[in-house]
Specification:
This protein is an alpha/beta fold. About 40% of the residues lie in helices and about 20% in strands.
Length: about 250
């Protein structure tokens, strides 16, 4: 039996298979979640997975979870990230998930969600904000973090992505060092995430999930803002899909 977790986010789709044909992979979401789901089906089949009730169980989560026709069940990202955090982190912990479109702070006690918070609809404290600002600075995300680590943060005070981009454009026009602008951008996101975190009682173990898990610099800045140690959850980029696969295993 294969237990399949599919997390279709706004930017990327993550897939984790546990069981007879273990594998994990990432595909770009593109413009259509349904098309992405079709591509995932083809990739799974090519990897030896049989998508039938006798051979597999599939749980879908994320932004496009409603567009996976072969899923046996749909579950929210909060439940899936919590399941992954409890299994690979600690049964009592705080999970911070900085996604492409939203940021979530999840409190887990005894392996179960006891509370959660989400940012408002503005993208200023999310991965999309970083992507937009990286494009404005003509760098990729990894290069943005590398630049930021070399700079001194400039103040990016706007709470709106559009206005914040205007601030960045002004800094560029004034000839401010690109490294300082990059540091200000990352610092701005870390501050907004920390502000959301402070609205909830944080537990001693704090784990970061999502795409920013791969950035030691962002983790360091967020830890400084919280005055607490933040750790990247093992395979944290796949946390939603991993949690979904763990939930698939519990299905009858």
């Amino acid at each position: 039996m294969d237990y399949i977790g599919i997390d279709i986010g706004s930017t990327a789709a993550k897939v984790v298979v546990r069981g007879a044909h273990p594998q994990q992979f990432i595909l770009p979401t593109g413009w259509s979640s349904r098309e992405t789901a079709d591509n995932i089906r083809e990739r799974l089949t090519a990897g030896g997975v049989c998508l039938s009730p006798d051979h597999s169980r599939t749980v879908a989560t994320g932004y496009g979870r409603g567009n996976v026709p072969f899923a046996d069940k749909m579950v929210t990202e909060i439940t899936c990230h919590a399941r992954a955090g409890a299994a690979h982190g600690s049964p009592d912990c705080t999970i911070i998930d900085v996604g492409g479109q939203d940021t979530k702070v999840i409190r887990i006690e005894g392996g179960m969600v006891s509370d959660f918070l989400m940012n408002d609809k503005c993208a200023a404290g999310t991965g999309k904000f970083l992507e937009i600002m990286a494009n404005r600075l003509c760098v990729g995300l990894e290069e943005l973090f590398a630049l930021a680590a070399q700079g001194t943060p400039l103040a990016i005070s706007a709470l709106c992505t559009v206005f914040a981009e205007s601030e960045v454009i002004s800094c560029i026009g004034e000839g401010k060092p690109r490294a300082d602008i990059a540091a200000g951008v990352v610092d701005s996101v870390a501050s907004k995430v920390a502000t959301l975190c402070f609205r909830q009682a944080l537990l001693p173990d704090i784990y970061l999930t999502g795409g920013l898990c791969h950035s030691p610099y962002f983790i360091s800045r967020l830890s400084d803002k919280l005055s607490r140690t933040v750790q990247a959850l093992p395979d944290g980029h796949f946390a939603g899909a991993l949690g979904a696969s763990l939930l698939a295993e519990r299905m009858k």
